Amino acid sequence: MALDASDATRRRVAVVTGASAGIGRAIAVALGALGWTVGLGARRVAQLEETAELVAGAGGGPIVHPLDVTEPASLDAFCAAVGEQAGLIDVLVNNAGTALPGAIHDMNDEDHRRIVDTNLLGPILLTKRVVAGLRAASAPGDVVFISSDTAKNKRPGLATYLSAKAGLEAFAETLALECEGFGIRSSIVRAGPTVTGFADDWDLAIFDDLMPLWQRFGIQRHFGTMQPADVGRAVVTIVTAPTHMWVPVVEIQPNPPLAASPESR
User: From the candidates 161, 167, 168, 214, which is the catalytic residue?
Assistant: First the structure.
């Protein structure tokens, strides 16, 4: 299907999962700043309304609807609500995620299942619905998967989370192959440490054990961090790329804090 270069800047209908706070909120606002309609999905509706105000303030058209990516019925209701209000979804950002730190043998079965369902199965099932709509309409689109650098740099204490993210990347890569020639781009944003509320409900005492372990394996070289807006910029770069090009993976990492000058040591 021939795609016109003007498609890269046209007004589009995007949806962002996990849009109630943190990275999801920042992505939604960044897409809203393009003047796009942005469907906002998450379980915390009150916080989605706060995101909606920010999206509208940035120039976008927010649509708020509750979403639990682990429930197929919720996925159907979300897609239907956005479709009824805005039309065909042609940008999907799979951002919703969850993690719990802990040794594999210490975590209970339900925690393992919830991590996999939220980070891997949920995005698979939502992507299926959005891509099916695009294929049926012979329309181009973008699917973006928010991954983690832990998919590449394994961290003890996060085995199930990083396994789900590695699976998500494998799914994204395979989706790209299946959609080749149909104008549907599948892309990954692999984000390093970012300041969010993601770990607010963690027992921070576990880091007394994890930090020395991560440093031992050379995967915690410094304590630099990024902001959610940095991930939003990466997503915008991907979905506004000219239609003749494709950005398969963007990995973003924080710079380390500046070293002290010799005079101040």
Answer: 161
